[in-house]
Amino acid sequence: MTTASPLGDTRAAWLLAGVEFFFALSWVVYVIFLPELLARGGIDRRYLPWIIAADQLIFALADWWMGVAVDRARAALRRIGPMLVLLSAVSALVMLLMPWLAATPLLFLLAVSVWVATSSALRAPPYVLLSRYAGRATLPRLAGIQLLGLAVASALAPYLAIVLKGVDPALPFLLSALAVAASALALVYVERRLPAAAPMSSAGGGSPAAGASGSKASWALLLLLALLLAFGQQVHSLINSAAHFKRLADPALLPWLMPVFWIGFSFGLLGVGRLVHARGPLQVLQVACPLGALALAGAALSVSLAALLLSQFIAGIFWASILCASIGLAAESGNPLHTGRHTGALMATLAVAAFSRIGLAASGGAAALGAQLLDWLPVALWCVVAVIVRRMR
């Protein structure tokens, strides 16, 4: 079977980075305008965090289902492009209609559910396409390029909240819908450049059932560790970081300071792929977890703005290392035919972590824990994972 050139691999990854960017940007636009859209339908603002939390649960279910669906299509030697285009088109259409449906709460909430579910076509499947495009060994490097789209969108979020303040939602939702629809074409382009499909089988000899229970147990442990890491990152970057900056800087500067974590994340993505390829994802994870925990501790202990900015930047670098290494482990786990469901399960785990963080804040749990405990919760979680991962082989 022929393989794509390295230049072609990189071009595909950059195209999928654009897909990731537009998907993440559409989510940012949705979150910015959701309070206004809920007000149009007379929905109480106190339900806002729970609606976003419910979105994350839908993401989790849809991500896993999409991974399974992609694996089945690959096993049958079918192209998945048409399915992804259809789901992306539905996602774009529903997003376009959201501002017009806001006055009818039931229709609006139904539209949100459909949009979230169909948007999963732009989350897990691109990573599966990359794993087919260049092989699982080079997936972390290419996934790092793709994740730059998420990093840029996350860094732009605070600025968009300022720029779009007072703007009618119809125009941003229209532009986001068009961008998502166009992203589907990039998915088709990448898939059409894939090497010809060939039947795949599990590597290794022996009985297919040999080691199955051990493999499942190891995979369950990896997902649990990913959940702890992602929940710690969510608490740090979306709850603690604002409080840290307000303690040392003028709150008016927050839109310029909050993206520092994601800038570090972007820099980390540019180099971690080669490191994972050279050392292996597990070894990178074993180093990144304790060093990342130290960076989080540095942010909690910072007594100057310069020290806090440096800690945030370094924490972003190590989160990039952790995420790329996790994607590499997901791609390498078990049967090659199950790359989709493993990647989908990892994306679902990240969504569950976001749901947990939103629930912690909305239920008053964050306030009950207090700032001191919240500061050290991400550090403790990453340290626990670092100890467990250190003993893994």
UniProtKB/TrEMBL annotation:
The keyword Transmembrane applies. The keyword Transmembrane helix applies. It comes from the Bacteria. It holds the Pfam family MFS_1. One of its GO terms (molecular function) is transmembrane transporter activity. The chain crosses the membrane at residues 12-35, 47-68, 80-101, 107-130, 142-164, 170-190, 217-236, 256-276, 288-307, 313-331, 343-360, 366-389. SUPFAM superfamilies: MFS general substrate transporter (SSF103473). Keywords: Membrane, Transmembrane, Transmembrane helix. This is Major Facilitator Superfamily protein. It comes from Candidatus Accumulibacter appositus.
